[in-house]
Amino acid sequence: MAQENLSLVLHSKGDLRLENRPVPEPGPNEVLLQMHSVGICGSDVRFWQHGRLGDFVVKKPMVLGHEASGRVVKVGAAVKHLKVGDRVAIEPGVPREMDEFLKNGRYNLSPTNFFCSKPPDDGNLCRYYTHSADFCYKLPDNVTFEEGALIEPLSVGIHACRRAGVTLGSSVLICGAGPIGLVCLLVAKAMGASQVVITDLSSERLAMAKELGADFQLTVTRGDGPQQLAQSVADMLGAQPHIAIECTGVESSMQTAIYAVRSGGVVALVGLGAEMVTVPLVNAAIREVDIRGVFCYCNTWPTAIAMVASGKVNVKPLVTHRFPLEQAVQAFENKRQGVGVKIMLKCDQNDQKP
């Protein structure tokens, strides 16, 4: 095996470098992966541009990347369910201890979790990477590496729709038609939502949302008032939606979601924005609107893989641009500028196929 392990390393705010690191050895319960496809997430760009995301601050050099798939090239002594050559999708959040959250099945909330590319934990935008074998999921033959990498954002959509209570006949407002808004759209439709309205500033992203199954697209301009937009949503649907899934983290968009949803409905907050925001909380309270937080995902990878493998969900159109790992800095600049939808980095020099 070549001992070159090219990695995309964030040293500090604005300081992104490609550099070689040693190829790691897997522990007893780990596998060594030759990375294949890694998507760029908005959180990676936020760390690069601001050096932090919420309470997570970059204090030392860190490899970026957490939307990933790869091939097993070495297995730890205690690993039984994977073998060399297996293609896997990687769940980036791994519990470090058996705490109450893990026992209750909500391990995503454990404060001690390892998580790829969350300071100080290294991610997997590199040639070779070790990960807990229990959080690597074998891909069926008809699922590509790129689809395997997209299991991570798709899992956000699954967890958001579960938290929001999407079911047969639900009417849903999705605020934001970026990658996360689009996967929420795909999942909501697959879970039986009857009508979905999606909003965005970008007509190009709304056009993709239409292609992916959105029933209505609402173009937002920066001067629109939240109550005005909420009324537009109701006019499109003929009634207020049961559920609003907010994917932007923008204060005005959160306000729109609360005003838009019907009394007794649910607002799920997926997007991360400012720490303190002003929202019409009394309006929500007197109408018994439930506001539910969404943090990452848990227990979603088998479901997401099955949805893709069965053809119930098609994530392939989300990938609009591809770059070799050697051009990762340019790819990040494209993502920062809002180019395309999902940018995929190809980490295997000898296999650049989807």
Automatic annotation (TrEMBL):
One family name in Pfam for this protein: ADH_zinc_N
InterPro entries, sorted: ADH-like_C, ADH-like_N, ADH_Zn_CS, ER, GroES-like_sf, NAD(P)-bd_dom_sf, SDH-like
GO biological process: sorbitol catabolic process
Alphabetized Gene3D superfamilies for the sequence: Medium-chain alcohol dehydrogenases, catalytic domain, NAD(P)-binding Rossmann-like Domain
GO CC annotation, single: motile cilium
Keyword Oxidoreductase listed: yes
Zinc recorded as keyword: yes
Major subcellular location class: other
GO molecular-function terms, A-Z: L-iditol 2-dehydrogenase (NAD+) activity; zinc ion binding
Cofactor needs: Zn(2+)
Keywords: Cell projection, Cilium, Flagellum, Metal-binding, NAD, Oxidoreductase, Zinc
Sequence ranges assigned to domain Enoyl reductase (ER) in this UniProt record: 14-345
Annotated compartments: Cell projection, Cilium, Flagellum
PANTHER family membership: SORBITOL DEHYDROGENASE
Family that this chain belongs to: Belongs to the zinc-containing alcohol dehydrogenase family.
The protein's name: Sorbitol dehydrogenase
Organism: Xyrichtys novacula (Pearly razorfish)
